[in-house]
Amino acid sequence: RKEVEQDPGPFNVPEGATVAFNCTYSNSASQSFFWYRQDCRKEPKLLMSVYSSGNEDGRFTAQLNRASQYISLLIRDSKLSDSATYLCGGGGATNKLIFGTGTLLAVQP
Amino acid sequence: DTGVSQDPRHKITKRGQNVTFRCDPISEHNRLYWYRQTLGQGPEFLTYFQNEAQLEKSRLLSDRFSAERPKGSFSTLEIQRTEQGDSAMYLCASSLETLSGYTFGSGTRLTVV
Fold it and tell me: Cβ neighbours of residue B76 under 8 Å, at least 6 residues apart?
């Protein structure tokens, strides 16, 4: 079993839709979690940190469920510009992050 | 320059040649990481440094791979006797010591022919 698992998608959604991604992790010692956005042939860019209390930034909401060992990302009112691959990453005390394979989102006009 | 920079951006090499990549992290970041990413996959951890000390190496990192960070600033990743399976994007990232997210460089895309 991979340490971090994501549904690779693709998720094809119309503009304005709400879309949610989940990511599960197997290492219960993981302490920090993040969502990254990666555009085609570009480097990953930090989108959000993920906290147990939830974290909201505009149209984006991230949540951590330690009991079930998953993190989620909710995107409301999807824009064409949200089309990208979304990577989740989790890490322990060393801050070494293990990433999932990424979830591809395609927002359709 | 406030970002992580990597050089070169692209490298095409013949099988069996040695290649070296360079990464310059954000200046105040004391942790530096190397990852490898292939198409359709997430970044795979290779190794990381805290200052000049290499603290962890992945089992993915065969004996042909070596990384250094001699003065705790820039880092180099060398691949000896390249193989076609080494073709990938090599990403460098840096962070502060606290549990913070990384900043990635734009990567070096290696093609072994």
Answer: B20, B21, B22, B23, B67, B68, B69
